[in-house]
């Protein structure tokens, strides 16, 4: 039997306790997350699995502080981040988190380079430096030939890779990615997967990745499945 050592508590990057999220639809409650408990360790790669509609994107949005929970706690390195006001929360996100949305949310009328440069400009990096960083990460996702193509003219898979590059341009501590390989052919998917693993090895990038892709889930350090609004830790799956 292989003993799996638990990382020490001081390496917990994000702590989730009794997390609840209820939406209201036509006056009726939709109880999506009903008490999620989860520790995410610094430098780990974690897959989030689960059936469609179970609340994976909802959990990721709350983890990324894009949405506030109905109840429970979310602590980043011990800090209750939802005590921050919206302005400070936006600055925290910009500095710490790279987010890949399930449906991209790119600016379609701007080119790939402009889309990826945007977070660096928001972070007040000089224009030239921001562009250098954007170009370098676009090359790493395989879009060297598409830098100045308008996003609306790119294929679904290319747009997804622009979204991955935009999430990574500021070298975030944590990558939160919602189906980052969902639209990709096997070769492009493998490239994105390799990039995430390389950044994890190179600089300890912590990644939480929602995916239906079993191959991707398998190469990550741990897997959890959302079932009935709660996180279930999978052993050896
Ligand atoms: N703003 C909202 N208002 C009302 N209900 C919502 C809202 N956002 C999400 N939901 C509901 O919450 C549930 C979970 O949605 P979520 O998008 O988190 O699922 P998911 O696990 O990411 O699904 P998929 O695998 O299809 O992407 C769904 O039933 C959805 O209809
Ligand atoms: Mg989703």
Keywords:
six-stranded mixed beta sheet; alpha/beta; single chain; 237 residues; 34% helix; binds adenosine-5'-triphosphate; four-stranded antiparallel beta sheet; binds magnesium ion; Rossmann fold; 28% strand; 7 helices
Topology:
Layout: E1 12-25, E2 28-41, E3 45-49, H1 56-63, E4 71-76, E5 79-80, H2 86-96, E6 97-100, H3 112-122, H4 127-140, H5 156-168, E7 174-178, H6 186-203, E8 206-210, H7 214-219, E9 222-227, E10 230-234
Parallel strand pairs: 3-8, 3-9, 6-7, 7-8
Antiparallel strand pairs: 1-2, 1-4, 4-5, 9-10
The structure holds adenosine-5'-triphosphate (ATP) and magnesium ion (MG).
Magnesium ion (MG) is lined by residues 56-57, 102, 178.
General shape: globular
Order of neighbouring strands in the sheet with most strands: 6-7-8-3-9-10
Q: Which molecules are bound besides the chains?
A: adenosine-5'-triphosphate, magnesium ion
CATH topology, which one?
A: Rossmann fold
The CATH superfamily name is P-loop containing nucleotide triphosphate hydrolases
Element order, helices and strands?
Answer: EEEHEEHEHHHEHEHEE
pLDDT < 50 runs, ≥5 residues: none
Distance between the termini: 16 Å
Question: Which class of secondary structure composition applies to the elements?
Answer: alpha/beta
Q: How many H/I helical runs?
A: 7
Number of domains: 1
Q: Work out the number of β strands.
A: 10
Q: How would you describe what is shown here?
A:
This protein is of the alpha/beta class and 237 residues long. It contains 7 helices and 10 strands. It has a single domain, classed as P-loop containing nucleotide triphosphate hydrolases (Rossmann fold), CATH 3.40.50. Helix 3 packs across helix 4, helix 3 packs parallel to helix 5 and helix 4 crosses helix 5. The longest helix has 18 residues. The protein is globular and about 45 Å long. The two termini are 16 Å apart. Adenosine-5'-triphosphate (ATP) binds next to strand 1, strand 2 and helix 1. Magnesium ion (MG) binds next to helix 1.
């Amino acid at each position: 039997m292989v003993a799996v050592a638990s990382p020490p508590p001081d390496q917990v990057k994000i702590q989730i306790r009794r997390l609840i999220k209820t939406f209201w639809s036509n006056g009726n409650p939709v109880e999506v997350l009903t008490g999620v408990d989860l520790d995410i360790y610094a430098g780990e790669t974690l897959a989030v699995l689960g059936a469609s509609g179970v609340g994976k994107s909802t959990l990721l949005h709350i983890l990324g502080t894009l949405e506030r929970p109905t109840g429970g706690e979310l602590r980043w390195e011990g800090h209750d981040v939802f005590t921050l006001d919206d302005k400070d929360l936006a600055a925290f996100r910009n500095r710490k988190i790279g987010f890949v949305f399930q449906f991209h949310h790119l600016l379609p009328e701007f080119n790939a380079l402009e889309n990826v440069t945007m977070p660096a400009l928001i972070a007040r990096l000089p224009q030239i430096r921001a562009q250098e960083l954007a170009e370098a990460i676009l090359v790493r996702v395989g879009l060297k030939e598409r830098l100045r193509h308008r996003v609306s003219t790119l294929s679904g898979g290319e747009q997804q890779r622009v979204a991955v590059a935009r999430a990574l341009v500021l070298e975030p501590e944590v990558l939160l990615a919602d189906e980052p390989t969902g639209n990709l052919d096997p070769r492009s998917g493998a490239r994105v997967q390799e990039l995430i693993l390389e950044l994890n090895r190179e600089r300890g990038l912590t990644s939480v990745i929602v995916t239906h892709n079993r191959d991707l889930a398998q190469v990550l350090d741990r897997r959890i499945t959302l079932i009935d609004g709660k996180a279930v830790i999978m052993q050896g799956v």
